[in-house]
UniProtKB/TrEMBL annotation:
The keyword Signal applies. GO terms for biological process: cellular response to iron ion. InterPro entries: ABC_Transporter_SBP (IPR050902), ABC_transptr_periplasmic_BD (IPR002491), Vit_B12_bind_prot (IPR054828). Pfam families: Peripla_BP_2. The keyword Ribosomal protein does not apply. Keywords: Signal. This is ABC transporter substrate-binding protein. It comes from Microvenator marinus. Coiled coil: none annotated. Residues 38-284 form the Fe/B12 periplasmic-binding domain.
């Protein structure tokens, strides 16, 4: 108890006043601070949002996958998205921990509750959930004006891009991994970006958000565009070369990028949409 009391004194437990849940929050502590001063981010997209909101100076620790903006590389690391180190988190004396439900472990929230560390986990899988997440996070950190500005600017830029999209819809497959092949199905931000960019997601009717596919299934789906955003350490540059039966491979319309921004529902989604549009309506060879 003495340790908990000391922790609360150092982390500012007395400032916890908010109790009403915000839209998009799936799990949260009973009380949240009005304006947290020491924030730990448990996901790269959360980190990017916090910095885009102008709250970067209050971020005291991030995951080992957080690499943007460049200044986060110097911050203490508290583990990964799915395996955060709670003791390391506590050592940062945070007054708010923000994460995403896709990486949320119930054991983490229980441990944070025990330590009386305020937390909020958000669902940010689709484009609309991302927009709502930006607004909610801005409220959590006391930067509502910045949140509305970021939200409105992203929507306006996306509307401008989609107004110019080609009417021709190419059958498109977005791939996140090779071993196994993991595709982007419905209920994902990648699915939304395919449609906004003027493509037709070949996995639109799948029941899973991120289905695992064998190569025979991909051949049967026969996309004429493949956007492969498998990370370099997990994929091979010539992975698709042997599969000329797939129209995208045969026609040279495989676009490969290891840019992690393409896997993050956050402020750089507008740039991701531009890349999706280029991949769907341009001509590319796997490289």
């Amino acid at each position: 108890m003495a340790i908990l009391a000391l922790f609360c004194l150092l982390s500012g437990c007395e400032s916890k006043t908010k109790t009403a849940p915000e839209p998009g929050i799936i799990a949260a502590s009973a009380e949240l601070p009005d304006k947290p001063l020491r924030i730990v981010s448990l996901a790269p997209n959360i980190t990017e949002i916090l910095f885009a909101l102008g709250a970067g100076e209050r971020v005291v620790a991030v995951t080992r996958f957080c690499d943007f903006p460049t200044e986060v590389k110097e911050l203490p690391k508290i583990g990964g998205v799915v395996d955060p180190d709670v003791e390391n988190i506590a050592a940062q004396r945070p007054d708010l921990v923000i994460g995403v439900t896709s990486g949320g472990d119930p054991g983490v929230t229980r441990a944070l509750d025990t330590l009386e560390i305020p937390y909020a986990f958000l669902k940010m899988e689709t484009l609309e959930e991302t927009f709502q997440g930006i607004l909610t996070i801005s409220k959590l950190v006391g930067a509502e004006a910045s949140g509305k500005s970021l939200h409105d600017d992203m929507r306006a830029r996306i509307e401008k891009i989609t107004a110019r999209k080609s009417p021709h819809q190419h059958k498109t497959l977005v791939v996140f991994g090779h071993k196994p092949i993991v595709g982007a199905g419905p209920g994902t931000f990648a699915h939304d970006l395919i449609e906004l960019a003027g493509g037709q997601n070949v996995l639109a009717d799948y029941p899973q958000a991120y289905p695992t596919l064998d190569i025979e299934t991909v051949i049967k789906l026969n996309p004429d565009r493949i956007l492969d955003i498998t990370m370099q350490e997990e994929g091979s540059a010539d992975f698709w070369a042997p599969f000329e039966k797939i129209e995208a491979v045969h026609s040279g319309n495989v676009y490969r990028s290891a840019d992690p921004a393409l896997m993050r529902p956050g402020p750089r989604l507008v740039e991701s949409l531009q890349i999706f549009g280029m991949a769907i309506h341009g001509k590319h060879t796997a490289h």
